[in-house]
Design goal:
Blueprint (H helix, E strand, L loop, with lengths): L5 H9 L10 H15 L5 E8 L6 H5 L4 E8 L8 E2 L12 E7 L8 H11 E12 L5 H15 L12 H10 L3 E14 L2 H11 L15 H15 L6 E13 L18 H5 L14
Length: 293
Amino acid sequence: MQVFDRAAKRRQRQRPATQAGDYDFLRAAVAERLLDRLDDVRRGFPIALVQGCDAAWLQPHLGRRGQIETLITMDSLAGRGSHVIGDEEFLPFGAAKFDLVIALLNLHWVNDLPGALLQIRHALKPDGLFLGTMLGGSTLTEMRQSWLAAEAELEGGASPRISPMAETLDGAALLQRAGFALPVADSEVIPVTYADAFRLMRDLRGMGETNAVRDRRKHFTRRATLFRMAELYQQRFAGTDGRIPASFEVITLTGWSPHESQQKPLRPGQATHRLSDALGTVAHPVGGPPKAH
């Protein structure tokens, strides 16, 4: 299923390339959180791959961590300083090449997310680590609601203005489906405030995060609908200071390429300690405690 227009997304990301530094705030916040997680892993990574949103931008930040000996960066656009130009849906690497793969804010624009994760797992060496971040389903919920209301009011229907995005539970299931061991998915909402909806849309264009859904409207938005959306956004969500919030939900995916040394859950009946002992309670047989006569 082709949900996203990948060529349009590349064009959107190409336009702000010369001024990307003006729109780094979200990427920097997400990258810092991701690197903090990497610091918690007490091991080295001889060769690592970073793919996604201006992957080369992360290189100096990773270099200060000291865990990585050789770093390869991959971006879908030329001119971003990456070592490899490649597509997340068709990774140009063989099997078991990397000890670590990082995906920075790129997977929410992939059509075949299960396939992309499977290729990442295939590119990892046994016991290799995958860390990925992508925008989740509650991202820009305020703008989404405002567009729906404005279009329903003035045009009698709504069009896909904001990309459909995965939920946290979807991420954990997809990691497991792709064959990762110890899969974990969690999310965090990063709130940002703006003077008005037009400032928010300017930043989205600068970040290359505007709509690339294949079924989006191809003609210009009616001026009345645009201004009504901005008005509804202000009315429904503005704080006491008059500024509007924009929510960015960031889902972080963590998984390991399977290896025999990794911990595995015990099968039923193999536990050596009772849960009731740990909780300081009394265990009863199935059906509840015995009844008094």
